[in-house]
Amino acid sequence: MTHGRYRSETLGERHPRADFSCGVEALDRYFHQQAGQDQRRGLAVPYVLVDTTSGAVVGYYTLSTLSIVPASLPVAVTRRLPRYQTFPGILIGRLAVDQRARGQGLGAMLLMDALRRCLDLSRQIGAMAVVVDARDEAARAFYERYGFLRLVDHDYRLFLPMATIAQL
Length: 168
Ligand SMILES: CC(C)(COP(=O)(O)OP(=O)(O)OC[C@H]1O[C@@H](n2cnc3c(N)ncnc32)[C@H](O)[C@@H]1OP(=O)(O)O)[C@@H](O)C(=O)NCCC(=O)NCCS
Prior knowledge:
Elements: E1 2-3, E2 6-10, H1 25-40, E3 45-51, E4 57-68, H2 75-78, E5 87-97, H3 106-122, E6 129-133, H4 137-144, E7 149-150, E8 157-161, H5 162-167
Parallel strand pairs: 5-6
Antiparallel strand pairs: 1-2, 2-3, 3-4, 4-5, 6-8, 7-8
Coenzyme A binds near residues 27, 104, 106, 108 and 142.
C-alpha cells in the first residue's frame, strides 16, 4: 500500500534492517535478528513502512493469527456471539516507528495500514477482531486513542472488533 512518499510491503532481503532503531531494545533486536526467521517459519509476517525517497525502513509491524478465548472478551461482545470455544482474530504482535521519524504521524499511518490489511484479510479468512500487545502504558495509551479496548484478563492486550474497523 502507498501513502504519499511511504509504502508498506512485506519484509524482504532488500530492506535495510540494521539501521532501524525505535529505542526499545527488544523491538529493535526482534527486527534485526528474528523477524526474517519468524517469516520463514510462518510464525508472523513482518510488514515494513519504507520511505521511498531514501529507501529507509521507518517502521514495522507483524501480523499473525490468534485464537481469542471468549472469557477474555467483555460480555457486551460475547452476548451477540455463538458459544464457540475460541474466536478467530489477527494479532499485531509488534509495531514500532524509528525514533528519528517519530511525531510525524507515521505511527498512526502504520496502525491504519495494519488495520486496513487486517480488514482485507478478514474478508478471505474469518477474523472477528484485531488484537494488539502493548508493551507498556504509553503504548496502551497510543492504541486506546484509536478505540482499542482492554481484554478483561490482560492489562496490556487490547482488541478492536473487525466491525468497528470496517467503519473507520
Ligand atoms: C508508539 C509509536 C508507534 C508512535 O509513533 P509516532 O510516529 O510517534 O506516532 P504518531 O506521530 O503517528 O502519533 C499519532 C498520535 O498518537 C499520539 N501518541 C504517540 N505516541 C503516543 C504514546 N506513547 N502515548 C499516547 N499517545 C501517543 C500522538 O500524540 C498522536 O496524536 P495526535 O494525532 O493527536 O497528534 C512510537 O512511539 C514507537 O514506536 N514507540 C516504541 C515502540 C512501541 O511502544 N510500540 C507500540 C507497542 S509494541
